[in-house]
Amino acid sequence: MASKAPAVSEARRIARTAQLELVVPECEKGIGAVISTPDAAQLIEGVRIAPVTLWPDDRGYFLEVQRFGRGLAADFPAATTQVSAAVNYPGTI
User: Which of 4, 46, 57, 66 has its CA 20 to 30 A from that of 92?
Assistant: First the structure.
């Protein structure tokens, strides 16, 4: 269930100091794993996902990512958190 950072031998070194080493991982080209279920084996350790409802129409779509007091954002501070998304198709506004 956890993705592991590549070893230094699998990465290109950029810079190094006594306290820090900066490397660029040599990753397979592409978009990576497509996660389609909350229990997918490819999830990064500690990452949680939940399904959301998409509300489409001819102008685009809206989705409520999280409702306060429930689900993954149950403990987020309501005064400083809004979790929603919208997409408008070209020419609809």
Answer: 66
